[in-house]
Amino acid sequence: MEAAKPAGKRPRTTYDAAFRTEAVRRVNQDGQMAARVAQALGMSEAVLGKWVRAARRQAARPAGSDALELENKQLRAQLVRAEMERDILKKR
Questions:
Q1: What is the rounded distance in angstroms from the CA atom of residue 55 to the CA atom of residue 80?
Q2: CA separation for the pair 86, 64 (Å, rounded)
Q3: DSSP 8-state class, residue 7
């Protein structure tokens, strides 16, 4: 006897990067409506909308911002270490 599956639950569909890129390109560059692109590709409009918004946010980021984020992360870690060393010296 098989275990009962929850009603309304579908298996999660995974899409490869090329598929995502093409779907977003159709909306952004070709000017097609997201609803029509999603329907033509047989996918959820909500998922396509998330991809399009993420692509637009990524495009709006200034060039070199990844390097700045990495530098900020390294500097924050260095600051934490320096503060810990300072606190150890204060206790003496």
A1: 34
A2: 33
A3: T
Residue with tokens 């990524």: 58
Look at the chain and count its residues.
92
Predicted confidence at residue 84, as pLDDT, reads 94
Residues whose CB is less than 8 angstroms from the CB of residue 19 and which lie 6 or more positions away in sequence, other chains included: 41
Supply the pLDDT for residue 58.
84
Tokens of 68: 């700045």
CB 34 within 8 A of CB 49: yes
DSSP type of residue 33: -
Question: Hey, what are 12's tokens?
Answer: 């999660």
Q: Residues 9-56: pLDDT tens digits?
A: 778 888 899 999 999 999 988 888 989 999 999 999 999 999 999 998
Output the CA angle 68-74-76, nearest 5 degrees: 100
